[in-house]
Specification:
The chain is about 30% helix and about 25% strand. The protein has seven helices and 13 strands. The chain is globular.
């Protein structure tokens, strides 16, 4: 008997149950999403006919290495299903994403899809969004100072994300990420709109009302939670 799959392999296998031949799929960014892309790549090698739209340069590179046919979002139009990970999932299946830095592209691809399926380990489950203390916000560099002041006025404590050398971490769009220290968020949809009203803000890691299903991996077991 083969050993049980290691996280996040089991959730990736479960996610394949949402895939049908001929579909165009959004391919997310991060550890869980990459596990799904690897599982999908094996199915493509076995003859599955699908196309993918990657949410990051990193995912695009991986998908090409695995032989998954790719198209641009403009070429694809509406997508069938997007598969992605998350950094927090609350009981209503609302999310915080963006620790991997692809939040704006991930939200665009998710909003272009008929269905969004999220893969997480049980450690990502929270009772209220913001419990892990960080909300990523992508901003235009020119507007960083203004955005920082106004985010502070909203009760956030923004810090520019940097790499191991202390240099600014740029998104694939060429912008900064402000990692905002937050307390648990009472009204995430309203809070997001307040942040989006700040000039120079391109997007937040709040994904409210977007996920249709969340695949939760606990050890080698998975549970599929669906939006009510």
């Amino acid at each position: 008997m083969s050993p049980p799959p290691e996280p996040p392999a089991a959730s990736a296998e479960a996610a394949l149950g949402f895939v049908e031949a001929g579909q165009t799929l959004g391919l997310g960014t991060g550890r869980a999403a990459e596990a799904f892309v690897k599982a999908l790549g094996q199915k493509v090698a076995d003859g599955l006919n699908v196309r993918g739209v990657p949410t990051s340069d990193r995912t695009e590179t991986l998908a090409r290495e695995l032989g998954i046919p790719l198209v641009t979002l403009a070429e694809a139009g509406q997508l069938d299903v997007t598969f992605d990970g998350a950094d927090e999932v609350d009981p209503g299946l609302d999310l915080i994403k963006g620790y991997g830095g692809a939040l704006v592209r991930e939200k665009i691809v998710a909003a272009s899809s008929r269905k969004l399926v999220i893969l997480v380990g049980e450690e990502k489950l929270v009772s209220q969004l913001g419990e892990r203390g960080t909300l990523p916000v992508e901003v235009v560099g020119f507007g960083e100072a203004l955005a920082g002041r106004q985010l502070q006025a909203l009760g956030c404590k923004p810090a520019r994300r940097t790499d191991s050398n202390g240099q600014p971490t740029l998104t694939d769009n060429g912008h900064f990420i402000l990692d905002c220290a937050v307390a648990p968020i009472d009204r995430p949809a309203e809070f997001e709109q307040e942040i989006l009203s700040i000039p120079g803000v391109l997007g937040t890691g709040l994904f409210v009302g977007l996920a249709d299903a969340v695949i939760v991996q606990q050890g080698s077991d998975v549970e599929i939670r669906r939006r009510a």
